[in-house]
């Protein structure tokens, strides 16, 4: 899977910052111990001097050094044990004076055995996803500013409940979905007419899952399809959008059905949905289409996969028109 060079550079910068931050934490810990705990620091100093002695000994090529080496080794082991127990005695973790690393696979080097470490590739993926997400108004959408008062609270006799009550349930469904997000996870199809808050709630899910540290890509289906089409039919780029849409932890595909109808888009959608379902990666799709319209438009293969998703239905009157009226 390819990424543009700028995302690798962004990841390099991020890794550098992590190294600097961790070095500072380590230095501050040493300073704290040296200033306040003379017993611990004297053991630590003794430990450092055994390493010095070891180096001198190895450099000394005269005579048999094996006995002296064994001696130093056991001195080192007992000092280490002493250091751990005195740290513990003062209420610190045993490894408090060890170098600090965020990734214990590569020790923050970004590579293992000449290959990029997974921690580094995650940073590259996140940088590429952030770039893809930059046009969506994520910061404007949270669960807290979803206003239920826009939904009618008079009971509709036919269904025995109100639009507001249904939307209250949908809001808590979406909130729970985001709060309990984990992998693998189930997918969701949010359905309902235009202007009922589908985009607001699906972006709120994206925002909360992103804050939990998962990789999230969100945006409108027409935009993504156009991008994939461009990459597929010419425009040279190192970034493989389709692959990113398939591999991200959570994909939020807004406004499915707003793209114009094309066989190519259908096959892109099938690839995305099918590959993600097979990998148990969740997708949140929002659409104005009825289920029967989905079947007619995208065909049985896509429909049968979408049919397995949870399907909250959004109801009410166009909230955008009401909002406008209230603002006037
Ligand atoms: Zn790593």
Kindly describe this structure.
With 328 residues, the protein is α/β, with parallel strands linked by helices. It has 2 domains: 112 residues; 193 residues, 3-Layer(aba) Sandwich (Rossmann fold), CATH 3.40.50. It is 56% helix and 8% strand. The strands form 2 sheets. It has a 4-stranded parallel β-sheet with strand order 3-6-5-4, with helices on both faces. Helix 1 packs across helix 4. It is elongated. 28% of the residues are buried. The site of zinc ion (ZN) has 5 residues, from loops.
Characteristics of this structure?
328 residues, alpha/beta, Rossmann fold, 2 domains, two-stranded antiparallel ribbon, 12 helices, 6 strands, binds zinc ion
Query: What is the residue-mean pLDDT, rounded to a whole number?
Result: 89
Percentage of β-strand residues: 5-15%
Distinct ligand kinds: zinc ion
Strand order of the largest sheet: 3-6-5-4
The low-confidence runs, each spanning 5 or more residues with pLDDT under 50, are none
The CATH topology of the largest domain comes to Rossmann fold
Q: List how many beta strands DSSP finds.
A: 6
CATH superfamily of the largest domain: P-loop containing nucleotide triphosphate hydrolases
How do the helices and strands follow one another from N- to C-terminus? HHHEEHHEHEHHEHEHHH
Number of domains in the coordinates?
2
CATH architecture of the largest domain: 3-Layer(aba) Sandwich
Oligomer: single chain
* Biggest sheet features: 4 strands, parallel
Main CATH class of the largest domain: Alpha Beta
